[in-house]
Design brief:
- Strand 2 and strand 3 (37-43) form a beta hairpin.
- Strands 5, 6, 7, 8, 9, 10 and 13 form a seven-stranded mixed sheet that branches.
- This protein has helices at 21-26, 47-56, 68-90, 94-99, 101-109, 122-137, 169-182, 243-253, 270-281, 315-323, 338-349, 365-372, 377-383, 408-414, 450-457, 462-471, 477-486, 492-498, and strands spanning 5-6, 30-34, 37-43, 63-66, 139-146, 150-157, 160-168, 194-202, 205-216, 219-229, 258-263, 288-292, 297-298, 303-306, 329-332, 353-358, 384-396, 402-404, 422-424, 436-447.
- It contains 18 helices and 20 strands.
- The longest helix is centred in the first third of the chain and has 23 residues, at 68-90.
- 37% of the residues lie in helices and 26% in strands.
- The protein is an alpha/beta fold.
- Helix 6 (122-137) packs across helix 7 (169-182), helix 10 (315-323) runs parallel beside helix 11 and helix 13 (377-383) runs antiparallel to helix 15.
């Protein structure tokens, strides 16, 4: 019997209410939509068992043979649907589920391994499964949203949100309550935003999770940020910047005092870069203190302070206190107001190495941003060592990327070779059908040379400074992206998204 074969496919389950899907799964038989019609799905290793069970069913559907990975992917989707239906059975017993909350709290506090909790209530198992799946896929955030008739779980992987599964409306509220309990939040309060933290243990690794709950029109939504431990902080080389940029970082970080800034939009990897700098600087003879909102990486070698506006611990007040602690290196999570900017500059002036982030689109705009905050230009020129502007770009999956054609108008506008090797995203099992595998940092480093200080003295604006720096060899983020495009590392769409058109 010759069966049509499908390889490396991402099929969607087909549910027939009259069939016992649980029993079919036991016999390694699954059902999916293939070419817009229901089909039976089997695999080589359990072929006879699957076909025997199909023979007992009154279904004249086409049968397809798939590889093991595709079969497992489809089977996992069926399992997720079953988890959802298991909740419908316990809806009536939701009161009992609420009583189990204290057990769950104890369960998390005892740091038991989440994978060994088969006897736990279904809602606990689902929350644990979300963490497990997120770690497995390398997600940085888990989003749980409430819609009018259902809930939805999405993961942020490589900077882009991908759908994980749909939840029943009632199940969503139970899951939200579970997460609130393990994060030490008030489950009775559903009208105001809440923030908390929790720790989960998966496969022997303990993870810190930051939890944010926000009331929306159809119910509360939760975003959980999975925070990395210090051992996961990449080294300067592992950040993925160009070799000459990395060497420039070393030179800047060898200064005993002055200010180094990292700029870029939210989610561009600024915190990771700063913590890489701190890991490089940390040694027994240095006192390193940070103030962050929130503390994103837990590190043993440095003292970290968490901003707490409720008790008046702001960046500015925390920074003042840090300077009384005899620090060598100070890191401020973000300079976001005049007071913090002025204290940070004073600290850099009085013999401390100051690291911080600023929200600007490019490196040279940092000067006017600080001047807007009320810092005198002469103080900036005597303290600011350099500014790194950075972005994170998704790199194309090397297995499935496909050659593509860029129109003459595009190549002419971007000053690119017309017949270059350009590629686009496709999607395969290696990249979880996204077309992208991993991310890389791209950056431009603006170093305050004597020429720049002279221009600042003459009151020259940002644009003129930027043009002068480009003339003297500064490579911009746009230049970096063009090079990656020509090298076939990123797609045109991704380059546009990250900032190809910015000069």
């Amino acid at each position: 019997m010759h069966l049509p074969q499908l390889n490396d496919v991402d099929l969607e389950p087909f549910i027939d209410e009259e069939l016992d899907h649980k029993l079919a799964m036991k016999h390694s038989l699954l059902f999916a939509n293939v070419k817009d019609q229901p089909a039976a799905i089997v695999r080589e290793t359990t072929l006879s068992d699957g076909l025997n069970h199909l023979a007992k069913l009154d279904r004249e559907w086409p049968v397809y043979l798939v590889d093991d990975d595709s079969f497992t992917r489809l089977r996992n989707k069926f399992l997720e649907i079953q988890t959802g239906s298991a909740f419908e059975e316990v809806e009536a017993a939701s009161e009992e589920l609420f009583e189990a909350e204290s057990d769950l709290l104890e369960f998390i506090q005892n740091s038991q391994d989440l994978l060994n909790s088969e006897e736990s209530a279904p809602v606990i198992k689902l929350v644990n499964s979300l963490f497990f799946q997120a770690i497995k896929r390398g997600a940085s955030d888990i989003h749980i949203e409430a819609h009018e008739r259902r809930g939805e779980v999405r993961f942020r992987v490589n900077g882009a949100l991908t759908k994980h599964l749909d939840l029943d409306k009632n199940v969503t509220s139970l899951v939200v309550n579970r997460i609130k309990v393990i994060s030490g939040l008030d489950i009775s309060e559903k009208r105001i935003p809440q923030d908390g933290r929790t720790q989960v243990s998966i496969s022997g690794k303990t993870l810190d999770v930051r939890v944010s709950v926000l009331p929306t029109y159809y119910g509360e939504r939760i975003v959980m940020r999975i925070l990395m431990q210090s051992e996961n902080i990449p080294s300067l080389e592992e950040l993925g910047f160009r070799e000459d940029l990395t060497q420039s970082f070393y030179k800047l970080l060898n200064h005993s005092h002055g200010m180094i800034l990292v700029t870029g939009p939210t989610g561009s990897g600024k915190s990771t870069t700063l913590h890489s700098f701190l890991q490089y600087l940390s040694s027994p003879d240095k006192n390193i203190i940070t103030i962050e909102d929130p503390v994103e990486y837990n590190s043993d070698e440095i003292s970290q302070i968490q901003v707490n506006d409720k008790v008046g611990l702001t960046f500015a007040s925390g920074l003042r206190s840090i300077l009384r602690q005899d620090p060598d290196v100070v890191m401020v999570g973000e300079i976001r107001d005049t007071e913090t900017a002025k204290i940070a500059v004073q600290a850099a002036l009085t013999g401390h190495l100051m690291l911080s982030t600023l929200h600007t689109n490019d490196s040279t705009s940092a000067i006017s941003r600080l001047i807007d905050m009320g810092v005198e230009p002469f103080l900036i020129s005597s303290t600011l060592l350099g500014v790194l502007a950075q972005r994170l770009t998704r790199t194309l999956c090397p297995v499935c990327k496909r050659r593509t054609f860029l129109s003459p108008q595009v190549t002419h506008e971007l000053n690119l070779p017309y017949k270059g090797d350009y590629f686009e995203a496709v999607g395969c099992k290696e990249c979880n059908f996204t077309g992208y595998k991993g991310r890389q940092a791209v950056g431009e480093l603006f170093i305050l040379t004597d020429e720049v200080k002279g221009m600042m003295k003459d009151g020259v604006n940002d644009h003129e400074i930027r043009e002068a720096m480009k003339q003297s060899g500064m490579r911009t983020i746009s230049d970096e992206l063009k090079q990656m495009l020509v090298d076939g590392e990123i797609s045109y769409e991704e380059a546009i998204r990250v900032g190809l058109m910015d000069n």
